[in-house]
Amino acid sequence: MATARLPNDDFYKNNDDKSLEIFSIIWLDANVDVKGARNTEVKLRSIINHIKKFQDVKQCQQYIKQASQKDRLVIIVSGRLGLEIVPYIHQLRQVISIYVYCMDKKNNEKWAYKFSKIKSVVVDLDELVSQITTDHKIQKKIEEPLSINIFSTGINAGKSTTGVNGQFVFSQILIDCLLQLKSTEIDENELIKLCVNEYEGNHTELSNLREFQEYYLPDKVLWWYTKETFFYKVLNAALRTQNIHVIFLFRSLIYDIYRQLQKYQCKNLKQDIAQFISVNSFFSTTDDRSTALFLLGDLTTQIDSERVLFEIDADPEIVNTKPFANVSEHSYFPVESEVLFMIGSIFRLNNINRDDNQIWIIKMTLCDEDEHDLKQVLMYMKQQIESREMNLRILGNLLWEMGKFDLAETYFTRSLKQIPLNDPLHISLYEDLGKLASQRGDYDMSMKWRQKLLTFKGKNPLATNVSVNKTNNSIGQSLPSNHINNNTKWKQHGITIVGGNGHGNQLNQLCGPEGIYVDDDHQAVYIADCCNNRIVKWKYGAKNGQVVAGGNGIGDRSDQLTLPNDVIFDKKNDSLIICDQGNRRVVRWSRQNGTKGETIISDIDCQSLTMDNNGDLYVSDGWKNEVRRWKQGETEGTTVAGGNEQGNRFDWATHIFVDKDHSIYVSDGDNHRVMKWMKRAKEGIIVAGGNGEGNSLTHLSLPQGVTVDHLGNVYVADCNNHRIMRWSEGSCEGTIVVGGNGEGRKPNQFTRPTDLSFDVEGNLYVTDWGNHRIQKFEIDLN
């Protein structure tokens, strides 16, 4: 073999020690063909990206010893230098395998067989690459460190949030915080730039990155996660080493995985029930025992580590907060029977024993968040987060409490760069940064932040230290409160808060009410009082309503409405937007002393409308059976759901809802189902009903009002069944929330409910069309 000295500088730029991946290759060889080595490195980088090369034994040994035990190092050594270094590094946890590349295979095998981590002695570079490729397929599954937090149930357990139990709680809260924090284009670009820098010179991964940027869709996230690319490598490394900033940049993709696991949970897994370890990464398992045993390796071979097999009992009917699913059908490797658990899944440790094959068997049960002794602390901290609109300041304060001061400062300052120059949030951020600097002993910096605070207040005298809380209807639709979860129940007897005095046109009466909008800011509800051709506003506790639009008889004048059937509040323009169905138009009506409406959309069979968080308006057209979106300034609108193509067809598209991801939910009335259209999707999916008309828990009958909570649960007014239903994401059947006691006027009955909404506290409001009233159902805290 020809010899030449390795150049001191690696031939690709990203050769620093801060790799985004867990696995690295360390290559120690004083004499190797440079050209051959470079060609080999290109091949090796498609398997393990980070390669560090050494010519000096002492430097190499020092580097390996200083590596974290969470790192996983694959060592390539020459025969002569291997004999020097292997005895000193073989026992280190971070070293997982060693390959001897030499010219004299026979003599080097004589000493190599004494060390179990030496996988092979090779004389050919292609053989070296092939051997590392084969071994890594198993190593990547069993050698990645598992990041966990343990909840102790001993004496004084649960009293501290700085020790083991504190880590347990904060890890759960951090996950929830990141899932709620909206991703921005700046974050997405930073993630791509980070990966581009990491994989510079790695043509395989750069090609994967380009494909990801061009073709990624949320419903393909499991395919990307299970494919052996930068996506899996970087995300898993960040989760397992708790690299919070990289996790922060990945958060929208983590949310996509969360939603997909929710979606497929019920359909794919019906295991025996079997609960305290919190896993801080996605937990990949298999339901094939033989596959798991195969990954443990040859039982006759001595290894330095212990062989452990986890046996998990999991019941999707019990566990609602952290989903899991068999992802095989959606995986890049569909033949692998892979069951994936969500980040932060909590398991009860049931039993540990060693079997006859010297394998440790750890039996665990997947449990819900309310099954352990810290549930009250955990739920309280969750409510503190969920009651506010998530932003970088909340994330920074959480990290501050966790003792991660540098990261807290990073996100405080990041927030300052992203908010408008006159945003009152500056006050809170400057105060936070000043206090944080003082706590770290940097009093000069603390004074600088406080000076910035005074300067800001001087320039913005009307600004106050406002809470970052925002009500659930800060956009043009009433959103379910974040207090709601899969176990939330409502009192079954409603309170009549509007109407209920028979049908009529007096101010204490309604006639055929339809759409409802809950305005928490002004403690009022707006009702489309359809047969009275008006919109009325009722303050909480009032005995009479106030006409705020129409009410001048039936007609098409600008001060008239004809059979209005929906209304929303546009906060930005301080106006109501109304479906004036009988006049085939959508009108805007000023909320402040408005006497006339302005037609903003004409010639449309308007059934329902809503607005997304960008201020874009969505309207369902019952005649064309489609939903169109109007961006601000547009005159034509764009079809975003429905139409007449096969697979896209509605039969009377009525009420609609748009979630924070801009997925559209449509009540498809005469098809007795609710459909979901994800952003840019060409076809919808059924999320409720779809089994024909009926009154069982798998059926709907003429569904009307629809809304979706932050967990993806669909709430629908099941009109002809006189009930409100909830369908969890991926569920095969719904549950009755309220009603379902037959048609009638009793407090626990409806006569054809047409719409529903929630207030900021999670109380439910239902338009009881046939009884000419609005019913309020309070959350049942018992």
TrEMBL record:
<dbReference type="InterPro" id="IPR050952">
    <property type="entry name" value="TRIM-NHL_E3_ligases"/>
</dbReference>
<dbReference type="GO" id="GO:0043161">
    <property type="term" value="P:proteasome-mediated ubiquitin-dependent protein catabolic process"/>
</dbReference>
<dbReference type="InterPro" id="IPR011990">
    <property type="entry name" value="TPR-like_helical_dom_sf"/>
</dbReference>
<dbReference type="GO" id="GO:0061630">
    <property type="term" value="F:ubiquitin protein ligase activity"/>
</dbReference>
<feature type="repeat" description="NHL">
    <location>
        <begin position="509"/>
        <end position="541"/>
    </location>
</feature>
<protein>
    <submittedName>
        <fullName>Uncharacterized protein</fullName>
    </submittedName>
</protein>
<dbReference type="GO" id="GO:0008270">
    <property type="term" value="F:zinc ion binding"/>
</dbReference>
<feature type="repeat" description="NHL">
    <location>
        <begin position="699"/>
        <end position="724"/>
    </location>
</feature>
<keyword id="KW-0677">Repeat</keyword>
<dbReference type="InterPro" id="IPR001258">
    <property type="entry name" value="NHL_repeat"/>
</dbReference>
<dbReference type="GO" id="GO:0000209">
    <property type="term" value="P:protein polyubiquitination"/>
</dbReference>
<dbReference type="InterPro" id="IPR011042">
    <property type="entry name" value="6-blade_b-propeller_TolB-like"/>
</dbReference>
<dbReference type="Pfam" id="PF01436">
    <property type="entry name" value="NHL"/>
</dbReference>
<feature type="repeat" description="NHL">
    <location>
        <begin position="744"/>
        <end position="780"/>
    </location>
</feature>
